[in-house]
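Researcher: Re-running this chain for the archive, since the previous output was lost when a drive failed. Same request as before.
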Amino acid sequence: MRTEITVAESAGFCFGVDRAVKMVYQALEEGKQVATLGPVVHNATVVSDLNAKGARIVDDPKALKPDETLIIRAHGVPEAVYAQLAAQGNAVIDATCPFVARIHTIVAEQTAAGRHVFIAGDPQHPEVEGIVGHCNGNCTVFRNRDELKCLIDRTLPERLAIVAQTTYNKILWGDCIALLPSDHPDLQVFDTVCSATASRQSDADRLSKKSDLMVVVGGHHSSNTVKLYDVCSRNCPTWHIETAAELSAAAGDIRAKAAEILSRKDSGHILKIGITAGASTPAHIIKEVQTNMSGIFDTDTTIPESEDFAAAFEEELDKTFTKKIRKGDRVVGIVASISGNNEVMVDVGAKQTGYITLSELTSDTSKKPSDLVKVGDELELVVIQVNDAEGTVQLSKRKVDEMVGFENILKAHESGEVLEGTVLSVVKGGIVADCNGVHVFIPASQSGLGRGADLNVLLKQPIKFVIIDVNEQRRRAVGSIRQVQKAERDAAKAKFWETAKVGDVYTGEVKSLTSYGAFVDLGGIDGMVTFPSFLGLAFTSRAMLSRSVIPSKSTSRH
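Model: Regenerated structure tokens:
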């Protein structure tokens, strides 16, 4: 039997779960007495390994020992839990997923502003319980479109906000949003479905449509894994397993279903099997399932030779334990996800979560993060703030761009290179232009406009300039448009006099009129048309002439 086994591109540990697991391992490595509030991840293998290393699971903060450090898992907790822990005095490591923490902030702000909050999700899921705990009681949870329709059919609150559990089905979320009345006077919709969750579901949907069979790997109590199973089972026969051992137990049923499928295909059909995994599934389990699936059909597949996934995972964790991030460091990060229009989450290979706000991503306020980066992009960044208590690192791409840009400014100052930029603003005494992320001040006297001219005519316009002064310590640069214009005129003059001869005919623009004739711009050279040449002509001061002219080597018009 010819078999092709494909693993979905986005299968396995998500950003938030990976961060939480690393934080537990880090605390254990530091010798802390660790307890987690519930299993840190919905995966028995990972939880067992953490337990073996000393991480205890408690269901209530009251069960903590005085010297234990409590780790709050990625799902987050209600606000009341933080107050309880503060009263008890136990040390806390908050591993709440940044995307979940964002929802906590949103619902707290919305309820404080007097809005009722609708939450799309499972009311028994710990993430939803945590979200509810930040709403001050002013909220309603709905599971699906039908439950939302029931809420809409009643009288909706006059002021309303709606959010979703991060692992909510993206398609169902879209259906729910479409159901909301467009004429509601005060409705705020926040798209809080995690982009990684949406990508994982989309990848699973595409793969299952191309496959004869699907295997979904992940905890039986994992919400996002169950949703992956639902997505795949709509397209082809699908099995939900938690470990490779469960795959072996289901081998007979899988072979039988494969034989049934092949009986309906032509003799040359290749059995296509897809594998995806929930956010709580480590890479080594996915690899083990992939290998065992090949064994079930006793066939060669295109599984690449690679190192042991479990060892590789431990090695990566070890790297994060020793990597220290400090303010001012320049680091390389991989874009892990993009959160709406405001933030980019980045993996910098350390225990902390890296994030870039829009203002630190670009100085162009018309752009949003998705216009500038995509998941998987490698970025050079500078650390602007480290918060070990929250496990976050604030990063800036804009500052790196400015550093690189200023280095280019210094080189341009030395070489006299003509730079290009865009005028950002008009300020006292001149204008400010952006040149590859660096702001350059151009005095009014160097703007290329006449004295007293309105500098606003240059606003948002592309310009060419040279650097005439640099203050390296203050990272300030001064530019001149006028010098570029002068150089261009000088070059035009030189070119003109290289070829000009008596009898040539030129086309120019009338710049001024006098009692004895007109001065005409020939492109850097002023030519004079004398009074007798005007006989029989009618023109305005902006008319274009094509006459024999007497060019003047002097730029003076007197």
